[in-house]
Amino acid sequence: MKIVNNMKNYVLFIMIIFLAVSNCRNNPDNTPINNNAASIPQHPINPYYSRTDTMTLNLPDSIWKIVLPDSVYRIARNKETEAAFSGKYWNSTGKGTYYCAACGNALFRSDAWFASTCGWPGFFETMRKNSVKYKSDYSYGMIRTEVLCGRCGAHLGHVFDDGPKPTGQRYCMNSIVLDFVKDK
Ligand code: FE
Fold first, then answer.
1. What CATH number does the domain containing 84 carry?
2. Who's near 175: CB < 8 A, 6+ residues apart?
3. pTM of the full predicted structure?
């Protein structure tokens, strides 16, 4: 039985490596985000997490289920919403960068964060134009614009047009799918 389990883990490992290579395709904006990339620690469990790799990820749900913690998976892939005032960034004031917790894509700078009274972290602009992508969302009888990670397609939250100046946008995000790294 132990041998069978070891074989299963081995096959799973090979499958993840194979998919990591075969499911990536070139991103037109393939410039490194940070020249000091070598000094940034990488995610210990998720082999797809990288704060420097901008290659688009098209992974099947079965892989995300394996590499993401359940709490992240439920929001990033199942599009659930964390409870208001329950996340760690809704009242954050640190200076740094918010990355996608699923893939490490740079999403927001703390300069764009604002104190949102709704219970979720708010931002008035993304870090780069292609940091995120958008999709119309007609669920729950509402018309909203869903915000997805531009690299891995993880559900991040929604964007509304009742935000502060200078953009008037309010990116209402789930803390659990954000990974904040303080500036050094
Ligand atoms: Fe992502």
1. 2.170.150.20
2. 82, 86, 87, 88, 89, 90, 120, 121
3. 0.78
163 within a domain of the structure (yes/no) = yes
- Which DSSP helix (H) or strand (E) runs through 97? strand 96-100
Range of the domain at 78: 34-184
Residue that is written with structure tokens 């290579």 in the block: 21
pLDDT (tens digit, 9 = 90+) per residue, 26-42? 333 333 334 344 444 55
Q: Is 24 a catalytic residue?
A: no
Which pair of tokens denotes residue 181?
């790294």
CA of 57 to the centre of ligand 1 (A): 8
β-pair partners for 112: none
Cα–ligand 1 centroid distance for 65 (angstroms): 14
